[in-house]
Amino acid sequence: MSLVLKQKAPDFKLFTTEKKEVSLSDNAGKNVVLLFFPLAFTGTCTAELCNIRDNYAVYNQLNAVVYGISVDSLFSLGKFKAEQNLNFDLLSDFNKVVSTAYGSLYETFGFGMIGVSKRSAFVIDKAGVLQYAEVLEVASELPNFAAIQACLAELK
Question: For residues 12 and 108, what is the distance between their CA atoms, to the nearest angstrom?
Answer without folding.
Answer: 24
